[in-house]
Amino acid sequence: MKPRMTPEQALAMLATMGPEDFPAAAPEDEIDDATAQRLIESGRRAMEKRATGRPSLTAPGEHSPQITLRLPQTTNRQLSAAANRLGKSKSQIVREAVDRYLATV
Known about the structure:
The protein is an all-alpha fold and 105 residues long. It is 56% helix and 0% strand. The chain starts with 6 loop residues before the first helix and ends with a helix. The relative contact order is 0.07.
């Protein structure tokens, strides 16, 4: 993943930030090129981690498609209660239910 800004641009941006914008640095701290580069790398790693998302349900490295569905409020409450009771996620319960249904059709 290519950085969206150069180290010089990042340093210029960091120099304009106040303590409320960047609480990890004290107002009297000067941010040098090495610190700016470390911050850029840290941000890049965080972005890469977010971009990879959750582990695949299909196979390592393969995309698991995502669907969205709407439920009546009562069904959603029942699903939430079952998930809490069983110690599972709502998604896990729905996947298991779909698998069981598809095995019968």
